[in-house]
Amino acid sequence: MKKLLLSLLCMVFGLIAYADSYTIQFATANSDPNNFTAKTAYASGSDYISNQTSTNCYAPSKGGLKMSSSSKNGTFIITLSEAGKVAATSIVVNAKKYSSDASKLNVNGSTDVTLSAESVDYTFNLDGSVLETITIKATKRCYISSITVNYDDAEDPDKAPCGLAYETTEFAVAADQTFEKPTLTNPNELPVYYVSSNNNVATVNALTGDVTLTGIAGKTIISANFDGNDTFNPGSATYTLNVTSAPYHTLKDLVTKGQDGEEFTAVGNFAVLYQKDKYLLLTDGTSNVLAFFNSTITSYEVGTPISAINGKVTIFNGLFEITDFTLTEGGEGAEITPTEITSLSGISTENNLFDLVTVTGDISNVNGSNATLTVGEETIALFNRFTLENFANCAGATVTGFVWVYNGTRQICPNAIVEPEKKADAELSFDGQASYELILGYNVSSFVAPKLNNPNGVTVTYSSSNED
Fold first, then answer.
1. How many CB atoms lie within 10 A of CB 316?
2. How do residues 249-283 score in pLDDT, each as one tens digit?
3. What is the pLDDT, as a whole number, of residue 8?
4. Per residue in 85-98, pLDDT tens?
5. Three-class SS string for the chain?
């Protein structure tokens, strides 16, 4: 590709910059209208493409790329090959609107530009960082015929390469760990400065290259850069740092910080609190959470110690759940002890934590899997969604179960119900007849109380219903 020597003198470093470009030209007729992965989708420039994905994009018979439909906006993402990854200064998109649509597009998060009815080159300026992907988003329908990437190639054939390099170019680290920078190969001991492509994930000391993680998961590219001098061409060396979510250490942290759809790891001392079929409750001795909906389910004994949990956070009807999970057995486990409460006000009001409680009250209004538990003047719903098969009306029952919130209503899922022990009959009786008629002044003084029969030897007291 022919290089055009610009007569623009770089004021800061005194370098001559050599501008270059490459173009990705869409084919005039795509043999597979919905396939932009094939070489036939491009008239030229496909070697600069590693992969591409599209949403609501089409290849019309007259060629090019048509973005968006009449009701849905389009997105086209190109992942560049090594040949296409350059220090880009701008991207030029040749595009036009569709018919009378108020068509707009942007590139790599730029401000939208409004398209005209004729094909025009629209320029989107970049900061000169290494370009890895091109993301084009369209509002309304439009046509794109080509994408041109402009970049500075400051290689002077009369100068030596700077020689910067990293032996390893891909690293992974958890967000709560520290990262030790890799060794930069710098054979010519040139002055370099360091840049992070994503300061939300990690920052880098411009002078030393030391990396500080922010605690947020994501990806950043750390580059060591040399701007050139009279002897050596400018250049850079980069490595990719993939920062994964930090493992959780308590279930409360997981519930508090976990996001819907997040794939997570929790490391600590856990235990299986309860399991029935696909429903499984885990505890760390302080908090309990529900895990279920696995493609396969393993049976665990209550109390099985668990050292690690891997799974996905799922928020369903406001309820925190763990799905697609695997459990690693081992570790110290966790204590399983119900919290004894004497009133319903002692029940936690924290959503999504399945408190294990024991409380005594009256069960009434049984209707299939639902009932009411009354404790003093307070009531709470009982719901045996995944615990007991059934229960019955009972006064003075001791209920052990899991408190949870479902559709905004706080409930207890009973795990065990103990009815009060029924006492044996004392079997007391008097000898003789059941009643006596006495006449004052006649036979009252001669009345002898009948003998009490007390076969079980219980302690008794006597009383009169009419002491007058």
1. 10
2. 999 999 888 888 888 899 999 999 988 888 889 99
3. 34
4. 888 889 999 999 99
5. CCCEEEEEECCCCCCEEEEEEEEEEECCCCCCCCCCCCHHHEEECHHHEEEEEEECEECCCCCCEEECCCCCCEEEEEEECHHHCCEEEEEEEEEEECCCCCCEEEECCCCCEECCCCCEEEEEECCCCECCEEEEEEECCEEEEEEEEEEECCCCCCCECCCCEECCCEEEEECCCCCCCCCEECCCCCCCEEEECCCCCEEECCCCCCEEECCCCEEEEEEEEECCCCCECCEEEEEEEEEECCCECCHHHHHHHCCCCCEEEEEEEEEEEEEECCEEEEECCCCEEEECCCCCCCCCCCCCEEEEEEEEEEEECCEEEEEEEEEEECCCCCCCCCEECCCHHHCCCCCCCCEEEEEEEEEEEEECCEEEEEECCEEEEEECCCCCCCCCCEEEEEEEEEEEEECCEEEEEEEEEECCCCCCCCCCEECCCCCCCCCCCCCCCCCCCCCEECCCCCCCCCCCCCCC
In this structure, the number of other CB atoms found within 10 A of the CB of residue 329 comes to 13
**What pLDDT, on the 0 to 100 scale, is given for residue 425?**
78
Token pair 């029969």 is found at 453
Contacts of 77 (CB under 8 A, 6+ apart): 52, 53, 54, 133, 134, 135, 136
User: Are the C-beta atoms of residues 281 and 273 closer than 8 Å to each other?
Assistant: yes
Residue 425: CB partners within 8 Å, gap ≥ 6? Answer: none
pLDDT lower than 50: segments of the chain? 1-16
- The token pair that represents 7 in the structure block: 């007569």
Instruction: Show the tokens assigned to 48.
Output: 């600069």
